[in-house]
Amino acid sequence: MDRFLVKSAPRGLLGKRQPAQTGGGPAALGDGEESSRKRPRRETPENGVDLAGPSWQRIRAEGLDCDYTVLFGKAEADEIFQELEKEVEYFTGALARVQVFGKWHNVPRKQATYGDTGLTYTFSGLTLSPKPWIPVLERIRDRVSLVTGKTFNFVLVNRYKDGRDHIGEHRDDERELAPGSPIASVSFGACRDFFFRHKDARGKNPSRRVEAVRLPLAHGSLLMMNPPTNTHWYHSLPVRKKVLAPRVNLTFRKIVPTKK
Ligand SMILES: O=C(O)CCC(=O)C(=O)O
Q1: For ligand 1, which residues put their CB under 6 angstroms from it?
Q2: Which residues pair with 100 in a beta bridge?
Q3: What are the entry keywords (predicted)?
Q4: Does 122 appear as a known binding residue?
Q5: Ranges of H-type helices in the chain
Q6: Number of domains in the chain
Q7: What CATH number is associated with residue 181?
Q8: Angle separating helix axes 74-87 and 135-148, nearest 10 degrees
Q9: Is position 111 within any domain?
C-alpha cells in the first residue's frame, strides 16, 4: 500500500486452477469472459448461505493470480454496509493526512485498521495497534475464511465517500505480511473500477507492454489476490467523477506478529 506498512500471520478450497488469461486490454472482468466453477460444498444449512458455495471467476495473467466472486447477496450486503457505516471508526487528525514531497495532504479516502490483540504495524512512520475486532468485521472475515479456507488477523478498511475519493497505484508488498498469504478484498456500496498494472508496464517509458486488467468490484464482492500477484502487479482505484455513492472496501490480511 502507499503510506501503509504492516509491522509486527492456503491455496485453499478454491478448486482447480485455470491457465493464464489476458489480452484485449485492459482485460475486463464481469462480462462473463472468465471461467467459473463451483467449489466443493463446505457450508452448513445453519449458515443460511448457498450450500454449493459461490461461483468463482478466475483472473490470470503473467504473475497475476486472482479469484473473484459475489459473496453476499444484495439484502445481506445492504445490511452489512449499513452496519459498517454505523460501527467503523476511521482515523482522524495526523493519521488522515499524508506527506508527499514535503507537503501535507488529506488522504483521499477514510481509513481504519482492526485486528488481533497484540499486533502492531507501521503507518505513516508510526507504530500502531489495530482496534480490536467488532462483530460486523468478524462476520465478514469468518465468511471469507469459510469459503476460502484462509485465515486473517488484520483488516484495513478504506471508505470512499464518492467517486472523487480514490487510491493510487501501489503494491501490498509489506515485508510484515505473512509470506505466501493471500489478501482478501471485500467491497460494499458503489461499484468501482479496480485496475492492475504490471510493474514493467508503468510510467511514461515502460520497459515493455503488458495489458492492464480492469475489474469492476461489485457490492458484496470478494476478490482474492493470491501470491505472486502483489510481487508483479500494482493496483489502484482511480477517480470516477460520475460515481456519487459511497463505497467501503476491506482488505483482510495475515501479518506476522511482532516478536516480544
Ligand atoms: O478499495 C479498494 O478496492 C482497494 C484498496 C487497496 O488497494 C488496499 O487496501 O490496498
Answers
A1: 1, 156, 158, 167, 172, 185, 187, 194, 217, 235, 237, 249, 251
A2: 103
A3: Dioxygenase, DNA damage, DNA repair, Iron, Magnesium, Metal-binding, Nucleus, Oxidoreductase
A4: yes
A5: 74-87, 135-148, 229-232
A6: 1
A7: 2.60.120.590
A8: 140
A9: yes
Beta strand 167-170 pairing with 233-237 = antiparallel
Which of 167, 186, 187, 195 to mutate for ligand 1's pocket (most ligand atoms within 8 Å of CB)?
A: 167
- Least confident piece of the model among 3-17, 38-52, 245-259: 3-17
> How far is the C-alpha of 180 from the C-alpha of 177, rounded, in Å?
8
Cell of 113: 485498521
For residue 108, being part of any structural domain is answered with: yes
With 0-12 / 13-18 / 19 or more C-beta atoms within 10 angstroms meaning exposed / middle / buried, residue 215 is: buried
Q: Model confidence over 215-236: pLDDT tens digits? A: 999 999 999 999 999 999 999 9
Using DSSP's 3-state secondary structure scheme, residue 143 falls into helix
CA 74 to each of CA 2, 104, 193: distance values in angstroms, whole numbers, following the listed order: 31, 39, 19
Q: Is 235 annotated as a binding residue?
A: yes
Q: Which of 149, 121, 158 is nearest to 256 (CA)?
A: 121
- 103: annotated binding-site residue? yes
What is the domain extent for residue 177?
A: 57-253
Grid cell 490480511 in the structure block, residue: 253
List pLDDT tens digits, range 108-140: 999 999 999 999 888 767 788 999 999 999 999
Give distance in angstroms: CA of 233 to centre of ligand 1. 13
